Amino acid sequence: MANNEESRGLKSLFDWFANRRKSGSTSLERQEREIADGLWHKCSKCGVLAYTKDLKANQMVCVECGHHNRVDSDERIRQLIDNNTWKPLDEHLRPTDPLEFRDRKLYSDRLREMQEKIGLIDAVKTGLGQINSLPIALGVMDFRFMGGSMGSVVGERLTRMIEQATQRRYPVVIVCTSGGARMQEGMLSLMQMAKISAALQRHKDARLLYIPVLTNPTTGGVTASFAMLGDIILAEPKATIGFAGRRVIEQTLREKLPDDFQTAEDLLLHGFVDDIVPRTQLKNTLTQLIALHQPVLTTPHMVLWETMSLTSTAAE
């Protein structure tokens, strides 16, 4: 009887150790998830653990390898716009479902779920503000909302912002991140490419500055329209930028593409991007570019100096 109890005890002990081994991987996954969501952040590129507060202070750029973690639209606005100068535009515009589109679920239900989950009305925020005391019209796309896809509201908000900038003679900056046009809105989504491009042309005709900032990823109809129409096109390091997806191109061409294909560095090499700017330097870079393109105002001192110079020359 005693031997049976001992054997049962040993068996249960062995079972306990076996269960511990089986659950080991699960515990590690849970631990990593808790680390990532808590005080520490594990870099997806180099694997280095960073204190989340320090990472945010460095604008979500890994201090070890320079990997640019994705940031939402609110964080991007805080990084670029001076405190207490942001004035949002057209927040009342809301997406609808004119085609009554349905894939695995109704488009209207998908929109409602996104809005409740993320707290955004659509995939872009637009507004007016100041960047180091210089006025600016800024649009920031948010990849969390249906992959930053370009629907009717995205197009309308950007168009109205550009028109406001043209009227006020403000430079325009659009931070792009998108999977392209929103298929649930069909042709209505594709029309936004032409509408935004037309507004940018009027802005250009007024001799005003437009700078798109291409972040990871910028693809599809956004790349095929306003993302590539800038006077100066900037990109973040290692950002994926292209039109069709890599796999689609490889299947069409039946060729293996280079590893750096559709990266910001490759586009810079081939002249599609003017400069690659780390996020920590973006605000100062934009400030310098905007300041250089401000109209030169003739001050009374300059007029007086020119008058004196002319008088001196005439006397000679």
Would you write up a description of this structure?
- This protein has 316 residues and is an alpha/beta fold.
- It has two domains: 2-32; 71-300, 2-enoyl-CoA Hydratase, Chain A, domain 1.
- Helix content is 46%, strand content 14%.
- It contains twelve helices and nine strands.
- It has helices at residues 2-22, 24-37, 52-57, 73-80, 107-118, 152-168, 186-205, 220-223, 246-253, 264-269, 279-292, 300-315; strands at residues 40-42, 49-51, 87-88, 124-131, 134-141, 172-178, 210-218, 234-235, 275-276.
- The strands form two sheets. Strands 3-4-5-6-7-8-9 form a seven-stranded mixed β-sheet, sandwiched between helices. It has a two-stranded antiparallel ribbon with strand order 1-2.
- Helix 6 (152-168) runs parallel beside helix 7.
- It starts with a helix and ends with a helix.
- The model is unreliable at 298-316 (pLDDT under 50).
Strand order of the largest sheet: 3-4-5-6-7-8-9
CATH architecture of the largest domain: Alpha-Beta Complex
**Looking at CATH, which topology of the largest domain would you report?**
2-enoyl-CoA Hydratase, Chain A, domain 1
| Fraction of residues in β-strands | 5-15%
The counted number of beta strands is 9
Cα-atom Rg, whole angstroms?
A: 27 Å
Q: How many separate helices?
A: 12
Distance between the termini: 128 Å
CATH C-level label of the largest domain: Alpha Beta
Largest sheet: 7 strands, mixed
Percent helix, as a range, is: 40-55%
Mean pLDDT: 87
- Secondary structure category: alpha/beta
Shape: globular
CATH homologous superfamily of the largest domain - what is it? 2-enoyl-CoA Hydratase, Chain A, domain 1
